[in-house]
Amino acid sequence: MALHGSGFLCSVSNTVDITSLFGGSTRLLHLPKSYPIHCNMVSARTTFGSGHLKLQNKEPCSRIRPCCVKREDSNQTADVESVSVDENTLKQDLEIAIQEENYVDAAKIRDKIKELQEDNKASVLSANARFYQSFRNGDLAAMQSLWSKSGNPCCVHPGAKGITGYDYVMESWELVWMNYEFPLQIELKDVEVHVRGEVGYVTCMEFVKTKESSSWGAQFVSNVFERIDGQWFICIHHASPVDI
């Protein structure tokens, strides 16, 4: 995920100077000196078009610090724990039923586990759909609400190194969206979803086209979600450019 279409060139020190290759005004985005576009220079070919994105951090590596924001406790925590306990209890009951050769009950328990897992997959796919809706519309407020604020979420835009920390990830989306007209055209193919306990992930081929470009950019994407207080939040977005 990150942008292709109208190409642009930028360099990062304390501010980002972005000039559209299709004409238009130069815009400045103020970033912290510790903005973690890791040491030296990252050059990312924008596969939504022919432009290039260059992000340069002239500060030493020692100044780079991850951003960690704690999430407030929620009264939904008990519900989440009960869901997890239910699944674990069902798995234990299944083992007991099999050991006792009670295959009728074992089949019923297996069906209940499958239903619960399918519900979790549907919830992760719904969170993934909301992510792409905010991406398509360039909706920063929606994007901010979808990302996990606990730990160190990570975002890897096509061809660039990873950006870690909630605040830095949000600034990166603001940066790559600056010179585009919305909505973008986004299509997903080969979508697969997997859930393991409190973690789920979606893999897919992502195709993006901007209004300024006549070609589609293609990325293979992995989106990882974690369940916090009963809701699924994205914690890792990794997009790798694919030639088409």
UniProtKB/TrEMBL annotation:
Q: Highest taxon of the source?
A: Eukaryota
**Which lineage ranks, top first, belong to the organism behind this chain?**
Eukaryota, Viridiplantae, Streptophyta, Embryophyta, Tracheophyta
The residues covered by the SnoaL-like domain are: 124-242
Query: Which PANTHER family did the record assign?
Result: NUCLEAR TRANSPORT FACTOR 2 (NTF2) FAMILY PROTEIN
Q: What is this protein called?
A: SnoaL-like domain-containing protein
| UniProt-listed InterPro entries | NTF2-like_dom_sf, SnoaL-like, UVR_dom
Q: Name one Pfam family in it.
A: SnoaL_3
The record ties this protein, via Gene3D superfamilies, to: 3.10.450.50
User: What organism is this sequence from?
Assistant: Arabis alpina
Q: Which residues form the UVR domain?
A: 89-118
